[in-house]
């Protein structure tokens, strides 16, 4: 005979979850699911912001990942190797990074130097630097003012960044574990 007490307890916990679906079956999974969906929506809004800001200052339509590459290349005013770009942006999709770099070069925002064993470096062109500076100015004028309206913004952003870095480690570890999981069946 099935344990009806345990079944009732599981059912009542699932019903208590405000979303009651396969990813949110109890309070901890509901909190994680709510966070994940908020993160996805924030990511999409962030990408739209990046594209809109870049289009406003340069008249160029690029996706958020290409925009991020441009800003990382401009960071600290020194050329970067593709390995650095991938590490800073936590990307593993080499072919897409290379394609993004080609788009940035075609737009005249990035130049490439070096070769083979010596190393290939990507640097911002004068136009690329100007675009990054104009982007930063518009970001200060529009986005930072908007975010500044939130209470305790700086403190909360610092805490959020710290927690997101910790969660990044959890997701990376879980991804490695998930890659081997199907082999155990």
TrEMBL record:
Pfam families listed in its UniProt record: HTH_27
Coiled coil: none
Entries under Gene3D superfamilies matching the protein: Winged helix-like DNA-binding domain superfamily/Winged helix DNA-binding domain
Record-level Gene Ontology MF annotations: DNA-binding transcription factor activity
Domain HTH marR-type: 62-128
InterPro entries assigned: HTH_MarR-typ, WH-like_DNA-bd_sf, WH_DNA-bd_sf
Name of the protein described by the UniProt record: ABC transporter substrate-binding protein
Organism name: Pandoraea thiooxydans
């Amino acid at each position: 005979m099935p344990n009806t007490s345990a079944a009732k307890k599981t059912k009542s916990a699932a019903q208590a979850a405000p979303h009651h679906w396969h990813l949110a079956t109890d309070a901890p999974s509901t909190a994680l699911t709510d966070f994940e969906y908020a993160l996805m929506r924030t990511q999409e809004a962030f990408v739209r912001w990046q594209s809109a800001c870049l289009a406003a200052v340069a008249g160029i339509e690029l996706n958020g990942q290409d925009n991020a590459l441009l800003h990382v290349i401009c960071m600290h005013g020194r050329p970067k190797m593709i390995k650095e770009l991938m590490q800073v942006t936590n990307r593993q999709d080499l072919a897409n990074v290379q394609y993004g770099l080609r788009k940035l070069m075609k737009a005249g925002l990035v130049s490439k130097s070096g070769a083979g064993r010596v190393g290939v470096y990507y640097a911002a062109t004068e136009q690329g630097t100007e675009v990054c500076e104009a982007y930063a100015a518009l970001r200060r004028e529009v986005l930072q003012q908007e975010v500044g309206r939130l209470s305790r913004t700086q403190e909360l952003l610092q805490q959020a960044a710290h927690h997101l870095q910790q969660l990044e480690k959890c997701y990376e570890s879980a991804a490695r574990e998930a890659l081997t999981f199907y082999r155990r069946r």
